[in-house]
Write a structure and sequence with these properties.
The protein is of the alpha+beta class. It has 4 helices and 5 strands, in the order ααββααβββ. The radius of gyration is 28 Å and the shape is elongated.
Length: about 150
């Protein structure tokens, strides 16, 4: 009897807690639906994906750091070999080294820009009228409004 009583007390509590919590994707969909409720366009959110947006993707940042380290090694090798070459060969290697150095400085500038979270993007939203047009929407960090 006591177990049954606990079950009937805890079950409604669990149902209320699980129903009341919306995911980030649910909030984004609700914002888009409220924006389009007065239009005659029906949207299909079945294939929609919510992704985070950064000023620079974290993977691109890591890749640029790795490429910069590789360029440092290559430049060091070129500088050590340039002393043993003839003037013409040295000039050619110098031109290559200059281009690699320019790329390295560009990567160093990129290193100063840390990845920063700027918001969310809901993509993969389709129109229900059968057109293959795919829509995407951007949101602020808290998913409180649609931003353009």
């Amino acid at each position: 009897m006591r177990k049954t009583y606990c079950f009937f007390v805890l079950l409604p509590l669990f149902v209320m807690m699980s129903c009341g919590k919306k995911t980030d994707k649910d909030r984004a969909i609700a914002l888009v639906e409220s924006k389009y409720e007065t239009s005659n366009r029906d949207l299909d959110f079945d294939g929609a994906i919510l992704d985070s947006l950064y000023n620079i993707s974290p993977q691109a940042y890591v890749d640029s750091l790795k490429k910069g380290e590789e360029l440092d090694v290559t430049l060091a090798e070129l500088e050590s070999q340039i002393e043993h070459l003839s003037q013409a060969e040295s000039d050619s290697v110098g031109l290559i080294s200059a281009k690699l150095t320019k790329e390295r400085y560009r990567l160093l500038d990129l290193k100063k820009i840390k990845p920063k979270f700027i918001g969310w993007k809901l993509s993969g939203v389709k129109l229900k009228d059968g057109k293959s047009e795919e829509l995407s929407f951007k949101f602020d960090q808290g998913i409180t409004k649609v931003v353009e």
